[in-house]
């Protein structure tokens, strides 16, 4: 039996390097398959999604991934048109969605929401973003992209830039990187430094520096992972305005980077990477978004097939 079969994906902390490598191999296998064989993988299976927060890529990449492996998707992306509006609880909504499908994908503003849903659901639950806590499938696509572009993860110097306080992708990525031998530089405005309580465990596995100055590190970095300032999570708009536009990756900064450095971003981007970077060979964020479809297809294929595919 494959070890991912019928399992939830709640936290990236539940995975080790071997498991990442296995997922990467299956992702590559999916990418190499011809479309008709690919469509056999989850033929007749249904994914349901329940998104209490906005999403473009995560939800659509799950739908597109499921379609590419022969399954179908149904769900709620606008909570205001669902019975949540009438006061239905998350627990009841999850229970119903798990009756109508084989796997449930949940995004919710509260930390712990996916763990809670997994205790209620009769079908596996995938965390597609829980509060400021985690976004595990994003981290899998980020790690896959680094490996694919740089041919390795061990030995790299990785800068993570922007909103390290509220950006949940950062916490999942750091936990994932804890399985590799990498040097991490965290760069953020002082008020958006990483939450020390949330990285207590990660600290034991990963060495990193913290700074407010990107220019101190830019020349050394192999991977520049840029994040959006998470405006919606600020308790006070004044505080957001103080840090808005803190770091902007433009052609001037690109000149200082290693020639083969790659620039990643979980997207959506606002002004933190200028549009003229898009056409450079260093820009890999759209590739990263595309990889998200394939890594998610691999995960769905593994969770829904006892013997893999
Ligand atoms: C991220 C998220 O929702 O945490 N988006 C995504 O899934 N790619 C990042 C963000 O919103 O800034």
Description of the structure:
The radius of gyration is 19 Å and the shape is globular. It has two domains: 12-135 and 291-304, 3-Layer(aba) Sandwich (Rossmann fold), CATH 3.40.50.1370; 136-289, Aspartate/ornithine carbamoyltransferase (Rossmann fold), CATH 3.40.50. The strands form two sheets. The protein has a five-stranded parallel sheet with strand order 7-6-5-8-9. It has a four-stranded parallel sheet with strand order 2-1-3-4, sandwiched between helices. The N and C termini lie close together (11 Å). The chain is an alpha/beta fold. The protein is 36% helix and 15% strand. The protein is built from eleven helices and nine strands. Bound molecules: N-carbamoyl-L-aspartate (NCD).
